[in-house]
Amino acid sequence: MATASLLHWTLNVVFRLPTILRNTCVLIAPIFGVGTTVATYLLTKDVTCRASTALVAAVIVAVVPAYTSRSVGGSYEVMSIFALVITFYMWVQAVRVGSMLHAATCALMYGALVAAGISFENMLIINVIPLFVAMMVVAVRYY
């Protein structure tokens, strides 16, 4: 609800677009759904280095029934899925490039994932990052 309030305030005050809070709550799911599709494309393109594979992954995440059912108006599960995908993308960027900007963005998205109400399944998936870091520390492969 805080995200909907922030978006509502931004649209009304900053952009001077009169909106109703109810409409803002309903439109959050499609906005974050599009963001998840774009983030999936970026993550897949970065990992596979093939635009065709990334396009297929983006189309699949856009039409898969399990994700579409979580993208109904007023549902905030779509925000945590977006945060999950963008966290992994930023993590891959931080590991590959070594940029502190990507690492900080990954940490912010990780915090957004927790703030969005992380589910048990997402919690199991997102623990891959600390597990990877722990393995690198044990293997003395950090720089």
TrEMBL record:
InterPro entries: Oligo_trans_STT3, STT3_N
All copies of domain Oligosaccharyl transferase STT3 N-terminal, residue ranges: 6-142
Compartments it resides in: Endomembrane system
A GO CC term attached to the entry: membrane
Cofactor(s) in the UniProt record: Mn(2+); Mg(2+)
UniProt-listed Enzyme Commission number(s): 2.4.99.18
Pathway given in the UniProt record: Protein modification; protein glycosylation
PANTHER family: DOLICHYL-DIPHOSPHOOLIGOSACCHARIDE--PROTEIN GLYCOSYLTRANSFERASE SUBUNIT, DOLICHYL-DIPHOSPHOOLIGOSACCHARIDE--PROTEIN GLYCOSYLTRANSFERASE SUBUNIT STT3B
Protein's name in the database: dolichyl-diphosphooligosaccharide--protein glycotransferase
